[in-house]
Amino acid sequence: MPQALVIHGAQDLRIEETPAETLGEQQLRVHMRAGGICGSDLHYYQHGGFGTVRVKQPMVLGHEVSGQVVAVGQQVQGVAVGQRVAISPSRPCGQCLYCQKGQHSHCLHMRFYGSAMPWPHIQGAFRQEMIIEAWQAHAVADSVSDGEAAMAEPLSVALHAVRRAGQLAGARVLVTGCGPIGALCVLAARWAGAAQVVATDITDQTLARARLVGADHTINTATTPDGLAGYKAHKGHFDVLIEASGNANALVAAFEVVRPRGVIVQVGTGGDTSIPLNVLVAKEFEWRGSFRFHEEFALAVDLMNQRRVDVKPLISHSLPHTEYARAFALAADRTQAMKVQLTFA
Length: 345
Prior knowledge:
The protein is α/β, with parallel strands linked by helices.
């Protein structure tokens, strides 16, 4: 039976055998090739959840995955055995109010891989083999590696954030927080035509990778706390702030360097926080949330297939799934790692 990585609680991740699933007529059986460890996976592993979301039953982790098709349902067309695919973990119902509006990321019945938000939990994709719906599979070019294909999911998050920002052609963009999502926001902003991208973080390793994917200038705010001071003149320099750290201090500090009527896209989450409402009002900011993605997944794969973006500089480690303990320890160490991925033999 195929193996899976199953979380039972904080610091309790196990390799377990899972029964083979029955293949439906419009489904694919996929052997997993690569899976990236996300921040939510880390929270489940380290703390058993985040905020009010807790692991209440054994759950397979993982949602950033790619694989190879090993069997095709009878009614599936256009997909052949052997095809390598990136797999979208976003499975909206298609019927609810928000799906009908085209706001699929807000689906009332979303089944997003590896999520303890609903009950029962939605099982994830860190497993050797699984059944998926044919529409979840996006073919990847021969030039795209398995690891790159697994980056389609976090790249989609960044593309959605850029879409929420609006027109970026010619814009001056500040990205605060350069973990995997923040660094991908740098890449996405550059792809979207930003004239300047400045990035901040508190570790040199992450900032070095942000430069590799398009940042013009980077600032370590831990070693250079006044590094943004030069951007305060004339009520602010930046047209758009993409806040990917979830840190209240980073957000408030950035308020000083965003111009009046600038757009703030909040991607990072960090719980309740206090903000200077007087500044928000006086500078007439537009503060927009950005949550997950849906249609951007196809765009992410297309951009990689056409080699219009390069996510390889952000993949720092790749380990067999049997070395999950080492992989999760690396993923938690931002001085060493950016994106840590698992492989499935």
